[in-house]
Amino acid sequence: METMRAINLSKTGSAKYDTTALVTDLTLNSSQPRPVPSSSDVLVRIHAVAITPYELTWPAPALADPRIPCHDIAGIVVSASPTSSFRAGDKVFGLKDFRTQGGMAEYALADPAHLAIIPEGLDFVQAASIPRAALTAWQALRVQRGGVLKVGMSLLVTGASGAVGRMGVQIGKKIVGEKGKVVAVGGVGTEDIGADVAFNYRKTANWVGGGEEGGVG
What we know:
The protein is an alpha+beta fold. The chain has two domains: about 5-130, Medium-chain alcohol dehydrogenases, catalytic domain (Quinone Oxidoreductase, Chain A, domain 1), CATH 3.90.180.10; about 130-200, 3-Layer(aba) Sandwich (Rossmann fold). The protein has helices at about 125-130, 130-145, 165-175, and strands at about 5-10, 25-35, 40-50, 70-80, 90-95, 105-110, 115, 155-160, 180-185, 195-200. It has a five-stranded antiparallel beta sheet. Helix 2 (about 130-145) crosses helix 3. The protein is globular. The protein starts with a strand and ends in a 17-residue tail after the last strand. The model has no long low-confidence stretch (mean pLDDT about 85). GO terms for molecular function: oxidoreductase activity. InterPro entries: ADH-like_N, ER, GroES-like_sf, Lipid_raft_assoc_Zn_ADH, NAD(P)-bd_dom_sf. It comes from Lachnellula suecica.
């Protein structure tokens, strides 16, 4: 049996979302069994992962013992099914199924439907930071309540300098197009993420009702 290095999470999850997991709940396992791909799995050599504070307190998947956290991954394909669109050597990123083991290890298995090729210009760390935030923004704008955002509409994104907010601004602008408008309110960097009008609330205290006069557009 081949082994690998992995980070194991020893904390028992609960139904409550909290951030009480400690660094001491994470341990290095130098003899974690290396995952063996099925005929449909993609085996990825992990180069970067991303984590949220809540993830460390989620209930562990039934078949995950010991548990490996971090489901936002980026890395290089080691092997894939001949019928898959991926090939060994492809640089990929994606969001693994939360019911499976995470990616804080040297290798991880992934469903090919949950992976994409990393665009040119992005490194592994940048790519790993995208999946969950982008999915959350997409679901809010185009899935929940039937997908309320349409071409030509106006969109206000608060918390625009956060991970989900940044994705919301860019996805939102793509949806509303040139006939629509995206207004972003956030902290440092809000002016640089593609909104039509941007307010840095640290600089503009009274942004409500300020129109374009107090913002960058």
